[in-house]
Each structure stands twice: as structure tokens, then as C-alpha cells.
Amino acid sequence: MTAATASGTAGGGTAAADPAVRLNGFDWQALTEEVNAYGCAQTSQLLSGEECRSISELYEQEEKFRSTIDMARYRFGSGQYRYFGNPLPGLVAGLRAALYPRLLPIARDWAAKLGTPAPWPDTLDEWLAECHAAGQTKPTAILLRYRAGDWNALHRDLYGDLVFPLQVVIGLDEPGTDHIGGEFLLVEQRPRAQSRGTSTLLEQGHCMIFTTRDRPVESRRGWSASPVRHGVSTVRSGIRRTLGLVFHDAA
Hints:
The protein is of the alpha+beta class. It has helices at residues 18-23, 28-38, 49-56, 90-114, 124-133, and strands at 40-45, 65-70, 77-78, 80-84, 142-147, 151-155, 166-171, 179-181, 184-189, 195-200, 206-211, 214-219, 222-232, 235-246.
């Protein structure tokens, strides 16, 4: 699917209503099947190149962010990322709110298979209110920037006791043109088996839906939780920027 033409920019209000409409055109049954099978799935194009650039340009506006992380300093890899502060830019907030209800059926299905609580209400606002009541009040939308030689170590984005089991990263640059390398990596430790890795080239304006912490895997004994971590391979040249959307806030 090709993204619809949108007016407005990352910080404006007119584009914020568009993501939900565009998401209606995705094949959610196929995406759900792929996420269930592999722990991740790349969607069709959601954002235009212009919208991707408008989000990328926010990186230099330090007042929009609550924190900047140098990955090498914390041994997270190499590169830099910034957490948005509140209020989120209009398009970023709209994407997060529009994607949450699309991922909610998968989250609830996984909880049912694993026999675990499914505390997630129908809307993102209700869920974030629960996070805030539990002391998780810091926004977790994030802009990541990788240059040549940068990479991201395998990790999980938990941030507190309240966790949504899926998250999304959106490619903002064009692979092969803006950068070489920097594949999205996902590694799953399967029960009583060797780890399984998945490598995906994230296209500009496309979403990668993936597991936050673990996912259900069927075995002869029923369903087991399979731990999953994600990261980014080394960027060999150019610059790779992405928008990360986590659906729980941080303590």
C-alpha cells in the first residue's frame, strides 16, 4: 500500500488523524500471522518520504526531548537516541494512538495462550493512565540516529512493571540510498532449543511490529513464553534514523 497524501508536518495537527485511516488498508490478518510465526512483521508503507523527513528534522530541536542517550557510554552499542518529552509532536502521538488498538488483539491473544493477565484497556489513553498511576510517567517515544560504524546491542524495552508486549519502529531513511547496513535484528530463545535470529531491512516509512519481551510458542506441553531481544546491525555507511514507539511509559 502507498501512504495517502497528507497535509501538515510532524509537529502539526492535521496529519495526526491520518495514521488510523491509512492503517485500515493494511492486511492485519496476514500481519498477525507473521508476528505470531516470527515475533516480528514489516508493514506496507505508512508514512511518506516527506513525513519521514519532517520527523527526522525534529532530532535537532532539543527542546522537544526529555533525554539524550549516548549508547557507547552505557555499552548499549554505538550511536545516539533521544526520548521525546510531553507533549509529543502531533504525528508521533497520532501514530502511537492509532497503532495501539491494532496491536491490542494480538497482545490479548498472547496473554490468553500463556495464561497471564491482560491488563490493557481498549484505548492508549486509558492504558497510559494506568502506567502513570503506577509511577510510570515518562514518555517513551524515541528518535534513534545511527551513523557509519554504529549499532545497537540486543535488548528489551521494559521500563517498569507495566509492559505492553508489542512495539513498533518506523524507518525514516531510505536503505541503499541514505545508508548501507543497519538491518533490524530479532533473536528469540526458543524453549529447549537454539536461538533463532531474524534480520530485516527496514524500508523508509514502513513499520516493524515486534515483540517487546517474550511471545507464546506452542510445544507438546502447550504454550511457553519465548524470550525475545532486538537490536540493529552495524551501519556500514551513511545515516539511519528511526522512530521507536513503545506503548507503555517509563518509571
